[in-house]
């Protein structure tokens, strides 16, 4: 379940990131860390990764915007980074860009237990996430999917 401030922080971050000619890929609030950590992942409009200088160019102005907004009244750490490999897929563009790539899908089964499946991503539509698991096509209902994450190596390699 996302932190209650995630949407507000993303709304705040978007114009700062756009001013740096980048896009917000995701915003995550890690409230279990001490101090609280705000992770903002940015990418170029073409979906390619950003470099350290681009992250630094966003970090300063974004920290100032967060301070000025008063959204966070407690101590926090701001991390601005590139999505990179091993990250979650969120947008439709992510699912198109990484079609054929090895992924891990975390889903909830009928009993409420979490189940991990790995395979090659075939795609996503309004109803299902499709995965090729060792030659077998899996159609996992989107409502059951908790996370889809890129993995470094093909499954069972």
Care to describe what's here?
Strand 5 (114-124) and strand 6 form a beta hairpin. Helix 1 (6-19) crosses helix 2 (52-69). Strands 7-6-5-4-8 form a five-stranded antiparallel β-sheet. A three-stranded mixed β-sheet has the order 1-2-3. It folds into two domains: 6-81, GMP Synthetase, Chain A, domain 3; 92-150, SH3 type barrels (Roll), CATH 2.30.30. The mean pLDDT is 89. The protein is built from three helices and eight strands. The chain starts with 5 loop residues before the first helix and ends in a 7-residue tail after the last strand. With 157 residues, it is α+β, with helices and mostly antiparallel strands. It holds the Pfam family RimP_N. One of its GO terms (biological process) is ribosomal small subunit assembly. Belongs to the RimP family.
Compose a concise summary of this entry.
The chain is of the alpha+beta class. It folds into two domains: 6-81, GMP Synthetase, Chain A, domain 3 (2-Layer Sandwich); 92-150, SH3 type barrels (Roll). 24% of the residues lie in helices and 37% in strands.
